[in-house]
Description:
The protein is built from 16 helices and 9 strands. The mean pLDDT is 91. The strands form 4 sheets. It has a 3-stranded antiparallel beta sheet with strand order 1-3-2. A two-stranded antiparallel ribbon has the order 4-5. Strand 2 and strand 3 form a beta hairpin. It is mainly alpha-helical. It folds into 2 domains: 194 residues, no CATH class; 140 residues, no CATH class.
Amino acid sequence: MQVPQSDILTTSRLGDVFNKTVATYKYFWFVSIMQIHAKMDNPRISVWDIVIRMVANAWYPIHYFRLSFGKSDSLFDIVMELHRITQISIDANTETIIEELTSRLNDRQIKKQLNTLTQNVPYRFLRPWIDTSDDKEMVHRSQSLENNCLYSLHKDGSDFYIILNPAWNTYLHNNYNILVDFAYWNLTLFLQARNPNVPAISNKLIRPEIRASLSAQHRYWDTVMNIGGSIHCIYTGKELHPSDYDLDHFIPWSFVSHDLLWNLIPADGSINSSKSNKLSDINYYLPKLSEVQHKSLKMMLAANKEPKVLEDFISLGYTARELANMDSLRFRELYERTFVPMNQIALNMGFETWKYQGVWKQ
């Protein structure tokens, strides 16, 4: 993937920014500039506004999805420390994080963490245009817009800001989506190399404003219960009836980033607050999950019910009918081969194990 070309601008140098990158700073710096510019349409942008947005953009993949940014990336440590200081929710949206950090910028602890991000990336980002490692020289040469660089740097006492090169204004606006996608595509490649066993990295970089509906999956389980009667929650033992249950991601959505049917199980609504995005105790609950899933498949197909959502099982390597025809031992072994490695990777990433502490109701 390449940045859109221009006969006037030094776009090739913009592409060079992301070559041989050893940390995530440049990706989040550029995306944050693009977002602020698109909203404000003001060429002057405070460096503090940019680094606060960098933290906000990195918040969700770090806290919610627990992605590793690599050993040499201090943005990860800064985001973790700011969470400790501020106690902002791990799944807060970007604007909430920005508002909170901006309102508390005079807090010495917060400003100290953010200040680290102002010390290198504003200068290093311009290296493809201005070849110097001296920050003062970089400031001076950027102000002449050497090689038609993207922005100039300005420091006036405590006031630190950039001014976007007006020659780039139309290009940045017209190619906003492509340029942001380009940065995130490169960030995905960078993070995939540091999280080789983690699925769906590209789906874990931006907090979704609205999660996908589980209506098709609810209809499936409602049908199962209408055919075969109530199901007992694998966690609490409570009897579950159509439309009176929650759907639980056995392996948390924050790890798998999908709503495939084989990872969803009807559950007592009371467990949501305690289980949250923790891992179900796999030794205790996986046999129960396997049994309920296998029975539901056999029941649906025996009743000639084949909703489209059954296609989700193909990702396990078998059709729904092939799975239904397996004996219970073979089906359970398949579930163990599928879930045990995912569970171990999630544990390695810091996900906690959960087990219901209440009284079994069956």
